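Appendix B, example 12.
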Amino acid sequence: MAVFSKILTMLRGDVHAIGQSIVDNNANRIYEQEIVEAKAHVASARQDLTAVMAKEMQASREIARLQGELRRYESLALEALQKDHGALAEEVAGKVADIEVAIAGQSAVRDDLAGHIARLKDLIRGAEALLRDHERELAMAKTTESVYRATATISSSMGNSGSKLMSAKESLERIKQRHQDTADRMQAADALDGEFGDKALERKLAAAGIGDAPNRKADVMARLQQRAAIAASAAADGGDKPA
């Protein structure tokens, strides 16, 4: 039957081998189209299956009709025998025999159709399961392709912008170096001022005890010593008075 070839063609595919080989967009489209065609074959197989099932139902109805005829003619044959119509009973018996042959033939057809139906159902279930596997593989292939495209785009963008990033980094390094140069110059200026400027001279005068700072210190010490002496004298006078 044509339906067998349609389904068996689908079952020949290796879903994993096909799915893993899908790496470009054209292959994805081809693979997707093959899945669409396979689904159409399965739908056609379902229609063929319904036709076979209809024939089985027709055979069953014919068997039921023949069995009714068989019972009727058997009853008529018995009635003919009871009424001593032997020749007529024999003729009816021939009719019964023909009906039994027809029932046997229809039963064989029905059983054959039932076997085909069972096999077709198994094949269709297997084909539908395989289709689901193919659809999952196609989805994975599309996702993989999207990742490849994104990676290629990022790589291309990084390649194009690499020189710009390098230039920006070099500019930043130049700015840092300029800031460091400025800081070093300020530190050097402070060092030179400490060695040759007014600060150096002031330090030398202070070290020699010359200038305002040493005199001011001596004045402060003299003032404090005088206050201490006055306080001590006042305390002594207070202690000499009688109680």
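The CA atoms of residues 63 and 105 lie 9 Å apart. The radius of gyration is 58 Å.
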